[in-house]
Design goal:
489 residues; alpha+beta; 6-stranded antiparallel β-sheet; 11% strand; binds FE2/S2 (inorganic) cluster
Length: 489
C-alpha cells in the first residue's frame, strides 16, 4: 500500500508537539500576562480584543493579516533569487529590503491578532499554537536580522538569513493550517441545519422563566441529528438561537443573559438576543437564528434563512408558476432520466459480461463513455437548472458528475483486458449507481413539486436533447475526439 511519507512524518511531528505538556506552563504565563492588563483596562481592552479577533468584520482577522508578511517576504525572496541568478541592480536590492520591512510590520500586526485568538485555545491546540507562534517569531527575527545585515553591507549573509526566515514561514504556515483545517480552530462550530423550515411547536410558554436560557431540540431527518436550540424569554419576548456556540461549540443554554446578550460559558462571547450576532468576541460568527411565535400556549420556531442559504421552503415551492391548461406531453423528466439511468446500468452489465480479451469491450466502453457524457450534458442544461428552486441536492449532484468524469477518464486509459480495468470499472459503476440512486430516491421526488405538466414538458425537452446529442454529427465527432484523447489516442 502506498503511504504519503511526508504527510505521515509531518503528522507524527505535530503529534509530538500536541503531547508536549512542557509548553503549557510558559504558555499559561503568557496568557496571564495578556489577560491581567486587559482586565485592568476594562472596556477599551475588550474593544481592542474585538478588533483583533475580527468580531467587527464577521470573520477572524488573523488569516487576513498573515497575507501581509507572506506576500511581502515571498516577494523579497523572489527578488533575492533573481539577483542570485544574475539580475543584480540597486533597484532590486532596495525593493527586496523594502519588502522585508513591510513584511515585518505586517507580521507584528498579524501576531497581535493571532495572540488574541490563541489565548482562548487549550490542550493540544494551545501547544501547536505555541509552536506556530515560536516558529513565526523566529521567521520575523531572521527577516529583521536580514535587514540589519543588508544595511551593514553584508548582502550575501542578509539573503541567507531571509531565506532561512522564509523557510520558517512555511513551517509556521503548515502548523497554522493544521490548527484550522484539522483541528477546526477559527471555523464556525454552530449547527446550521435548515430545520425546521415551517413553524414547529417546541415548548409550552409557561416553562420559560425570564432570562433563564432553556434548551430544546429539533430533528433534522436529512442528517439524522438532533439540533439544539436555546430559548430565552427576555423583557416579555421569546428569542431563539442555535444552542451550539459558533466559536468552539460551547453550550449556550448553560450561559447567562447580560445586557440583552446571551453569554457563552466557555470563552465569554456575547450574542445579541435579537439578531444572534456577537457583540463581543472571541466569536466572529453569528448564531443561527429562529423566528418565534406563540400559539395556543406553545413556543413555535422556524429557522431564519441566512444570506446565501440555498434552502427550499414551502414559499419557494408556491412560487413555481403553473403551466397553461391544455398543455400535455408524454413522459415526465424523471421518467426520461430514469430510463437513461437504466440504459447506462445495462451498458455496465454488457461490459462486465464481455470476455476480457474481446475487442468489443473497448467499443462498449466508448458507448458507455458517450452515454455518460450525454447524460451529464442533459442534466446540467435542462434538469438541474429547473429543479434548483425545489431541491437542495443539485450542488452535490454537480460534484458527483465531476467525480464520475474523473473516474471515467482514468478507466478509459486502461487496457480493458486487465484486472486494473475491472477494478476501475467497478468503482465507476459504484459512483454512477450512487449518483443515479440518490437522484431517483430524492431529487426526482422533490422535482414533483414542479407539477405534472412542467415535468412532462421538461421530459419532452430532455428526449429532444438526448436525440440531438446522439445524432448530431458535430456532437458525435467532438465526443469521439474527447474519448480518444482520454484513451491516450
Ligand atoms: S465556545 Fe468559545 S465563546 Fe463559546
Amino acid at each position: 500500500m502506498k503511504r504519503p511519507r511526508f504527510a505521515k512524518a509531518a503528522s507524527a511531528g505535530i503529534g509530538r508537539i500536541e503531547k508536549a505538556s512542557s509548553l503549557d506552563k510558559p504558555s499559561y504565563a503568557v496568557e496571564t500576562a495578556i489577560a491581567r492588563p486587559s482586565q485592568i483596562a476594562g472596556s477599551p481592552a475588550e474593544k481592542a480584543g474585538n478588533v483583533l479577533h475580527g468580531t467587527w468584520y464577521g470573520h477572524p482577522l488573523h488569516p487576513m493579516l498573515v497575507t501581509l508578511p507572506i506576500g511581502a517576504w515571498t516577494f523579497a525572496f523572489g527578488l533575492d533569487l533573481l539577483a542570485v541568478l544574475g539580475l543584480r541592480s540597486k533597484g532590486v536590492e532596495r525593493s527586496a529590503e523594502l519588502a522585508l520591512k513591510a513584511g515585518a510590520a505586517g507580521a507584528v500586526v498579524a501576531a497581535a491578532a493571532g495572540l488574541a485568538d490563541w489565548q482562548h485555545t487549550n490542550g493540544r491546540d494551545r501547544r501547536v499554537g505555541t509552536a506556530h507562534a515560536l516558529v513565526n517569531t523566529t521567521s520575523l527575527a531572521l527577516h529583521l536580522a536580514s535587514v540589519a545585515l543588508r544595511d551593514r553591507g553584508h548582502l550575501g549573509r542578509g539573503r541567507l538569513a531571509s531565506a532561512a526566515g522564509w523557510a520558517c514561514l512555511l513551517v509556521g504556515g503548515y502548523l497554522g493550517g493544521h490548527m484550522v483545517y484539522r483541528r477546526q480552530i477559527g471555523v464556525d462550530h454552530a449547527d446550521r441545519s435548515p430545520e425546521p423550515r415551517d413553524f414547529q411547536a417546541v415548548l409550552p410558554v409557561s416553562e420559560l422563566e425570564e432570562d433563564r436560557p432553556l434548551r430544546v431540540e429539533i430533528r433534522d431527518e436529512d442528517t439524522r441529528q438532533n439540533i439544539g436550540v436555546v430559548l430565552v424569554r427576555h423583557r416579555g419576548r421569546v428569542q431563539a438561537m442555535g444552542a451550539r456556540c459558533s466559536h468552539m461549540g460551547g453550550p449556550l443554554d448553560q450561559g447567562w443573559v447580560l445586557n440583552g446578550s446571551l453569554v457563552c460559558p466557555w470563552h465569554g462571547s456575547r450574542y445579541d438576543l435579537e439578531s444572534g450576532w456577537p457583540t463581543s468576541g472571541p466569536s466572529t460568527c453569528p448564531q443561527p437564528r429562529y423566528e418565534v411565535r406563540l400559539r395556543d400556549g406553545m413556543v413555535e420556531i422556524r429557522r431564519e434563512q441566512e444570506p446565501g442559504d440555498e434552502i427550499v421552503t414551502a414559499a419557494d415551492i408556491d412560487k413555481v408558476p403553473p403551466l397553461p391548461d391544455g398543455v400535455s406531453f408524454s413522459k415526465k423528466a424523471n421518467e426520461v432520466l430514469f430510463e437513461h439511468h437504466e440504459l447506462i446500468r445495462q451498458l455496465f452489465k454488457a461490459i462486465k459480461n464481455t470476455p476480457r480479451d474481446d475487442p468489443q469491450r473497448r467499443d462498449l466502453m466508448r458507448i458507455l463513455a458517450s452515454e455518460l457524457e450525454i447524460h451529464e450534458h442533459v442534466e446540467d442544461h435542462i434538469f438541474y437548472p429547473a429543479v434548483y428552486s425545489v431541491s437542495e441536492d443539485v450542488p452535490i449532484a454537480h460534484s458527483e458528475h465531476r467525480q464520475l468524469a474523473d473516474l471515467l477518464a482514468k478507466t478509459l486509459k486502461l487496457n480493458t483486458a486487465t484486472q486494473e480495468f475491472e477494478e476501475h470499472l467497478q468503482a465507476l459503476y459504484s459512483a454512477m449507481d450512487h449518483h443515479a440512486g440518490s437522484e431517483e430516491r430524492s431529487m426526482f421526488q422533490e422535482a414533483q413539486r414542479l407539477g405534472d405538466a412542467r415535468l412532462r414538458k421538461m421530459g419532452q425537452e430532455l428526449e429532444r436533447m438526448l436525440e440531438e446529442q446522439r445524432t448530431s454529427r458535430a456532437q458525435r465527432m467532438f465526443r469521439d475526439l474527447k474519448i480518444r484523447l482520454l484513451e491516450g489516442l
